[in-house]
Amino acid sequence: MKEKFSPAEWEFLKLLPFHIFVMVAGADSKIDKEEVERLNEDLRTAPFYKDPLHSELFVDILTSDANVLVKEALDASKFLDRMNQMKALLKDRLTPDEYQRFVASMFVCGLNIARASGGGFLGRGDKVSSEEKIALSAFAAMFELAPDSLPRFFG
Fold this sequence. Notes:
Layout lengths: L6 H7 L2 H10 L7 H12 L7 H11 L3 H8 L5 H15 L2 H19 L15 H13 L6 H6 L1
């Protein structure tokens, strides 16, 4: 899938998982250790992802300077412009099915991060805070995730 993008575009896309991480993990104004551990676990298990673009992107991130990517993702002043540019780039280079599969896979990644911590009293109850749910909904809306994409590709 990397061949569908120029080297500069590929480097730019490597920011997307970190933008989603910051968006979801930071939604409740704190990034928990468990959320960071979950992101690291997702990076380590990337070769086994169902979506080939997500897998290839995460495997490539493993050989990158993640600190630089995180620092860039934390720059809130560029967040909305970057997300819109990434969406346009992905829609331009991918087929509609490839696009929906990738966005659904990234949504699942964000959901896993949200589920990594929290859970109310003694860790019971819904692990995803209302702020994280709003962040995930915003990501789904921003990237036009089709309602049937999750069950169609990952159900």
